[in-house]
């Protein structure tokens, strides 16, 4: 598709954002500043509104959600200390670099791209638009199923400690799904999360500090820790290692940076890089710290939900799981918000009453969480929800596509060594995409043989 350009005179006289590249409808006006030389597509959600500090805190809190309680098992147990430490550092650094690179392409030719798929469509055409759309939505939907499952597990642990009941996990998964639905209805977009970040921050601090204290006690008292790398055979160990690498990518990135970047006020690129700096320092220190400490405390036997391993006291386990559940209600919203934005932009109508739009929003949110909650209840295998999006979708979204954009946009100005570097990124990470995807599907097949539908894991 040929790029469309607006002259400066046209930009100054434009009173409403134009639809530059999008196959979606544009019936809802942008909620944000319009007196700008940047052309923006229409969206039902707020654009150009938030400070970098708000988005930085949002990233730190959101990436320190309940998923981090699975990483000791899913990352370090299959890799061991040596390879695990190397991969955490290398892929963490590459992820930060790739997001930093992608942030610089938020505005091209005077056009601000608030959706990743619009950016890829503008640069490469409709085919890449749809490929990006599919990869993003696979990541967002599967991750949301995982969030629902983790919330259900937290609630089940609370119930077990309080009453010792044998209620099935599926009941708690339904409760978690309902809670997420209510929050998504009351908090319609990413910018509206601002007033909830304080509560989420407190919950995060409480459960992380409590968890680290008990992990320190358990690790000190556990004299029989086994750090043997998991796997019945060498082939098993290799595939498990690739799954672990995919999980490392998942814990460091979301595949929706342009959507998050769209909420930032100008200068959006500079402010995004400030927010990313906060995520990859303060945020990374926490989720890497929990991952490493959990593996140190329990070794290769670390559970795929660490609070199940905690020795107590009872009140501390209840508090930690309660804070995990409260925190994840807020943090999961960031990773499903682009789905809501797409539905709201296409189905909410500016010429209808507020009550009618509220009803539409309620129905749209309900449909999303009914489907995801049912899937999480039917397939409660946390490793599947973690490794598949990390491998099949996040590798190209995070590492391959930004280098492709660089080579296309900077083709005439880039130095030879820069081109070699980005082509190397494309080749290496495309290969890793294939390897980790095979590993993820292998894990799914393995779980399908071990567990039954609606298993009470």
TrEMBL record:
InterPro entries xref list: AA_transpt_TM
Superkingdom of the organism of origin: Eukaryota
Keywords tagged on the record: Amino-acid transport, Membrane, Transmembrane, Transmembrane helix, Transport
Keyword Heme (UniProt): no
Protein's cellular compartments: Membrane
GO cellular component, one term: membrane
Any one Pfam family match given in the protein's UniProt record, by short name: Aa_trans
All residue ranges annotated as the Amino acid transporter transmembrane domain in the record: 50-438
Alphabetical GO biological process terms: amino acid transport
Transmembrane segment boundaries: 55-76, 82-108, 129-149, 169-188, 195-215, 238-257, 278-298, 318-339, 362-382, 388-409, 421-445
Name of this protein: Amino acid transporter transmembrane domain-containing protein
Source organism of this protein record: Stephania cephalantha
């Amino acid at each position: 598709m040929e790029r469309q350009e607006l002259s400066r005179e046209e930009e100054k006289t434009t009173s409403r954002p134009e639809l530059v590249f999008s196959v979606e409808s544009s019936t809802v006006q942008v909620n944000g500043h319009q007196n700008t030389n940047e052309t923006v597509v229409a969206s039902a959600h707020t654009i150009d509104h938030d400070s970098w500090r708000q988005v930085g805190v949002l990233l730190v809190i959101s990436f320190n959600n309940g998923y981090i309680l699975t990483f000791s098992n899913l990352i370090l147990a299959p890799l061991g200390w040596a390879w695990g430490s190397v991969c955490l550092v290398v892929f963490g650094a590459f992820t930060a670099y790739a997001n930093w690179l992608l942030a610089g392409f938020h505005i091209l030719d005077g056009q601000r791209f608030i959706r990743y798929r619009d950016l890829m469509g503008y640069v490469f055409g409709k085919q890449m638009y749809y490929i990006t759309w599919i990869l993003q939505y696979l990541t967002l939907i599967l991750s949301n199923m995982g969030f629902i499952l983790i919330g259900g597990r937290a609630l089940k642990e609370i119930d077990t400690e309080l009453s010792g009941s044998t209620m099935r996990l599926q009941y708690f998964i339904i409760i978690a799904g309902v809670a997420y639905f209510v929050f998504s209805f009351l908090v319609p977009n990413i910018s509206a999360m601002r007033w909830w970040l304080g509560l989420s921050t407190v919950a995060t601090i409480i459960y992380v500090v409590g968890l680290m204290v008990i992990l320190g006690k358990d690790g000190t008292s556990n004299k029989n820790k086994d750090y043997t790398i998991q796997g019945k055979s060498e082939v098993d160990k290799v595939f498990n290692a690739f799954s672990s690498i995919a999980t490392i990518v998942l814990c460091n990135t979301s595949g929706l940076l342009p959507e998050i970047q769209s909420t930032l006020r100008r200068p959006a690129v500079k402010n995004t890089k400030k927010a990313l700096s906060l995520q990859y320092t303060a945020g990374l220190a926490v989720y890497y710290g929990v991952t490493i400490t959990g593996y140190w405390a329990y070794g290769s036997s670390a559970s795929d939900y660490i609070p199940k391993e905690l020795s107590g006291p009872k009140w501390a386990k209840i508090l930690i799981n309660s804070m995990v559940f409260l925190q994840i209600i807020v943090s999961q919203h960031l990773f499903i918000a682009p789905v809501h934005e797409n539905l709201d932009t296409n189905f909410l109508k500016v010429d209808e009453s507020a009550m009618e739009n509220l009803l539409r929003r309620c129905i749209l949110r309900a449909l999303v969480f009914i489907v995801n909650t049912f899937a999480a209840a039917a397939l409660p295998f946390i490793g599947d929800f973690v490794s598949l999006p990390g491998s099949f979708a996040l590798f190209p979204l995070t590492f391959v596509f930004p280098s492709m954009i660089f080579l296309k946009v900077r083709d005439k100005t880039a130095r030879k060594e820069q081109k070699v570097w980005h082509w190397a990124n494309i080749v290496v990470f495309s290969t890793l995409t294939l390897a980790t995807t095979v590993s993820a599907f292998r894990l799914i097949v393995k779980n399908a043989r071990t567990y039954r539908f609606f298993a009470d894991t």
